[in-house]
Amino acid sequence: MEKYKMIGILSALEVESDIILKKMIEKEVSVIAGMTFTKGRLSERDVVLATCGVSKVNAALFTQIMIDNFRPDCILFTGVAGSMDPSIKQMDLVVAEKLTFYDVSPHQLEFCFPNQIWFRTDEELTELVRSNAKESLFGAIITGDQFITSRERKKQLKKQFPEALAVEMEGCAVAHTCFVNSVPFAIIRCISDLADSEAENSYDAFEKKAAEKSARIIIKTISKMK
Ligand code: ADE
């Protein structure tokens, strides 16, 4: 019996999901509250894919609507991110072990529902993603509603979250939503920029290449699922 009968796939941008969508067959599109979900088959698996747009609210909305309407047995998130570690450069892959919101205080996260500072990814699913992304780094990702483009801001965030490997704008919102719904999830990001003053230029140069590298790992992971 397949463990993951229906696999949810999310990304923020079309450039991050296009190659997955193109590989899907028997596609069926549903629009729910203006949000588009494409159900189909990929590597002989049932999948549902959606491009949620940037930000925590969009990510949480799409994740919850996907869970409520398509009942995925797991959710995989793919996309690009800014580096938060001097050893991590453009095109490196980061697989999340845990995620937090950098723009909500840890105190509030701990004392308000659902009382989590760090949201941990599913161990088995994450291991599966990692096994298909051999050179990837594994660790903490921080999420907030800002595109980080300054050395000062990056330094500040690194001081607050020394373990952070990457920064992005959706991951922890997906993690939070999956956590409250008890849906196993994994998150992979490919670095497009170093979250510094060069970030916008670097993002433009690496967005497509990095997005496709990350998406290819998701395709490979799904093809290897038992
Ligand atoms: N996604 C890709 N690069 C990013 C950055 N520098 N800040 C936030 N999200 C990102």
Textual characterization of the structure:
The chain has 226 residues and is α/β, with parallel strands linked by helices. The protein has a single domain, classed as Rossmann fold (3-Layer(aba) Sandwich), CATH 3.40.50. The protein has helices at residues 14-23, 56-70, 106-111, 123-131, 151-160, 171-181, 199-224; strands at 6-11, 25-32, 35-42, 45-51, 74-83, 93-101, 119-120, 137-143, 164-168, 185-193. The chain has a 5-stranded mixed barrel. Helix 1 (14-23) runs parallel beside helix 7 (199-224) and helix 2 packs parallel to helix 6 (171-181). It starts with 5 loop residues before the first strand and ends with a helix. Bound molecules: adenine. Residues 80-82, 147-148, 167-169, 192-193, 195, 199, 203 line the site of adenine (ADE).
Name the features.
226 residues, alpha/beta, Rossmann fold, five-stranded mixed beta barrel, 7 helices, 10 strands, 38% helix, globular, binds adenine
